[in-house]
Amino acid sequence: MSTAPRPSRPPPPVPKPGHVKVVRAMYTYEAQHQDELSFEEGDTLYILEQKDKDWWKAKCGRNSGLIPSNYVEENTESIDYPLHDAAKRGNTDFLRECLSNRVSVNGLDKAGSTPLHWAAHGGHMECLEVLLAEPKVEINVQNKLGDTPLHAAAWKNHAAAVKVLLDKGARVDLRNKEDKLPVDLTKDPEVASLLRQAAGVQASRYKDDYGEEDAEDSD
Length: 219
Known about the structure:
Keywords: ANK repeat, Cytoplasm, Repeat, SH3 domain. Residues 18-77 form the SH3 domain. The protein is α+β, with helices and mostly antiparallel strands. 41% of the residues lie in helices and 12% in strands. The chain is built from 9 helices and 5 strands. A 5-stranded antiparallel beta sheet has the order 4-3-2-1-5, covered by helices on one side. Helix 6 packs antiparallel against helix 7 (159-167). The longest helix is centred in the last third of the chain and has 30 residues, at 189-218.
């Protein structure tokens, strides 16, 4: 009796850019009706729905409502990577605001980096902890250079950032496009020690997980 072919395992999920459009108002807008949204020049607007071509649903601060779509196109400037910008600057308030407005925690910028890369690169611990607390955050994403957030933290010698990433499951065995492990990039003895210790733990865990199966295969 023939059996159906075993389906191949799906590839790991690829992080997708955030679906929320984020803009900064260049002018003040006064709502004309109760269901519209008022905002001031310089306010950050999160465009939540674009189902109607003429009126989009937006949020500003704690308020939400409709705004004319042509206003967004003509009187605002786009903030292309708001969560990355917040992580890069260590702006925790803006970072939390972006996340609460559904900006993707795993969005990729032009370099293929996630907000976690930038928080790790800057050693911004509060931003790192907020991002790592997100249920769907991807910790081991490699950007176009092959660097993970752990590579970024190690390269900048941020011991505290390295430790919190390791505690959350960051892998030490991923190599970048220059064939470098995170430990190869650091000049800080404490960071190097943390990474070597983690390498031993992860190698032991891998052996425990797969060693018995390998032994069976060799019989």
